[in-house]
């Protein structure tokens, strides 16, 4: 069987590109296609000389305008991957194109915020630029949806991410957050932007999700690890995009004409975590306490520390929690720790001992006892079920009344 030399032109520092590559790998492992793959060793994309490469085919991220330009005159088969466009003229001519459906991404995020009971909505985008065309498409989709419902589309682009602009960027984000009607549901065009806004909320003392319910796009594990409050996110169908792109190229290598083919891949779903579990408490002390718990539950905080933060006695705080949530402060702390643990176990990248330590359990044995009592299984059993797809990565267990 002939082996084909295939180049993958992606910036695998980005979660979207890595997921597409994973989809390509999944296609190859499920077929008889024999490909020798060529990628940059350090995952940085370098284009000079690509036109002289003597290969058989290329799959490339066309969200990068430099990539699209470099491959316009390619003499070997090319399959493009990128964002969708409302304007059909924005797609490259004569190149098969596999797109993430930007409109459906935004609609799914907004529908989730509507279901959470929000009535005001906003979008945190990116500065307008050629390399951010996908973000502008998401912004356009948001404006369309809001205008259909005759609602004001609050959109903020902010500054790009760079060390010299960090302070100005955060200050601008805080000013924008203060200007929005509350409570508000905010969609960020990526998890990275959502993480920035989450940090701005915490610095400004704005409670998430009571005042700001925040959802990103990408379901990036790194973004989740870097946020104090677990971040809800829309899961793109990036792996399916990779599989589809590989299939199209495979067909082209066998003589099938795919010129102008366009495939839109919808989002997979939403990983629902604490940042959008909006249910505004009636009492401000409960809201303030839960905001503190959400940030520090996994650091082993106790009820008296929560009461000190709120500025009332422990007995008063317990009374407010019983009245409003029908549970104790300790119950809520434990629920957030349990949610964090189930999410980490489902991810499968850490041992049970590491999960217990990271989530603030005093010992593996204590976490084991909590799992048996609350979920009816051991941490190991939960992890095994999650790896088999029998349970979600914690989101299905994060909606009980204790953490609502």
UniProtKB/TrEMBL annotation:
<dbReference type="InterPro" id="IPR009057">
    <property type="entry name" value="Homeodomain-like_sf"/>
</dbReference>
<protein>
    <submittedName>
        <fullName>Xylose operon transcription regulator XylR</fullName>
    </submittedName>
</protein>
<keyword id="KW-0805">Transcription regulation</keyword>
<dbReference type="GO" id="GO:0003700">
    <property type="term" value="F:DNA-binding transcription factor activity"/>
</dbReference>
<keyword id="KW-0804">Transcription</keyword>
<dbReference type="InterPro" id="IPR018060">
    <property type="entry name" value="HTH_AraC"/>
</dbReference>
<dbReference type="InterPro" id="IPR054031">
    <property type="entry name" value="XylR_PBP1"/>
</dbReference>
<dbReference type="InterPro" id="IPR046335">
    <property type="entry name" value="LacI/GalR-like_sensor"/>
</dbReference>
<keyword id="KW-0238">DNA-binding</keyword>
<dbReference type="Pfam" id="PF12833">
    <property type="entry name" value="HTH_18"/>
</dbReference>
<dbReference type="Pfam" id="PF22177">
    <property type="entry name" value="PBP1_XylR"/>
</dbReference>
<dbReference type="Pfam" id="PF13377">
    <property type="entry name" value="Peripla_BP_3"/>
</dbReference>
<dbReference type="InterPro" id="IPR028082">
    <property type="entry name" value="Peripla_BP_I"/>
</dbReference>
<dbReference type="GO" id="GO:0000976">
    <property type="term" value="F:transcription cis-regulatory region binding"/>
</dbReference>
<feature type="domain" description="HTH araC/xylS-type">
    <location>
        <begin position="287"/>
        <end position="385"/>
    </location>
</feature>
């Amino acid at each position: 069987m002939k082996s084909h030399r295939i180049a993958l032109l992606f910036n695998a520092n980005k979660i979207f590109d890595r997921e597409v590559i994973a989809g390509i790998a999944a296609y190859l492992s499920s077929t008889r296609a024999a490909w020798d793959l060529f990628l940059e060793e350090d995952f940085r994309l370098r284009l000079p000389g690509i036109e002289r490469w003597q290969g058989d085919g290329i799959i490339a991220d066309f969200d990068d305008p430099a990539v699209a330009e470099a491959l316009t005159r390619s003499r070997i088969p090319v399959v493009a991957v990128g964002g969708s466009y409302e304007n059909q003229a924005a797609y490259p001519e004569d190149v098969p194109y596999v797109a993430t459906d930007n409109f459906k991404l935004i609609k799914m995020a907004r529908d989730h915020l509507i279901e959470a009971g929000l009535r005001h909505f906003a979008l945190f985008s990116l500065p307008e630029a050629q390399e951010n065309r996908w973000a502008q498409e998401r912004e356009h989709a948001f404006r369309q949806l809001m205008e259909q419902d005759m609602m004001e589309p609050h959109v903020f682009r902010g500054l790009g991410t760079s060390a010299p602009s960090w302070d100005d960027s955060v200050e601008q984000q805080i000013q924008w957050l203060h200007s929005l009607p509350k409570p508000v549901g905010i969609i960020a065009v990526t998890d990275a932007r959502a993480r920035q806004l989450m940090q701005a909320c915490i610095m400004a003392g704005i409670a998430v999700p009571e005042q700001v319910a925040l959802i990103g796009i990408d379901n990036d594990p790194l973004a989740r690890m870097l946020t104090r409050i677990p971040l809800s996110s829309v899961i793109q169908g990036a792996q399916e995009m990779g599989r589809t792109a590989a299939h199209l190229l495979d067909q082209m290598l066998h003589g099938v004409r795919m010129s102008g083919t366009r495939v839109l891949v919808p989002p997979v779903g939403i990983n629902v975590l604490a940042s959008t579990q909006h249910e505004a408490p009636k009492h401000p002390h409960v809201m303030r306490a839960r905001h503190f718990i959400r940030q520090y539950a996994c650091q082993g905080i106790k009820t008296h520390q929560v009461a000190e933060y709120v500025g009332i006695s422990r007995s008063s705080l317990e009374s407010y929690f019983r009245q409003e949530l029908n549970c104790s402060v300790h119950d809520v702390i434990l629920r957030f720790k349990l949610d964090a643990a189930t999410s980490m176990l489902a991810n499968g990248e850490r041992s049970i001992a590491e999960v217990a330590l990271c989530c603030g359990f005093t010992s593996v044995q204590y976490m084991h006892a909590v799992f048996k009592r609350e979920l009816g299984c051991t941490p190991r059993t939960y992890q095994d079920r999650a790896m088999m797809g029998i349970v979600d990565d914690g989101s299905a267990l994060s909606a009980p009344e204790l953490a609502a």
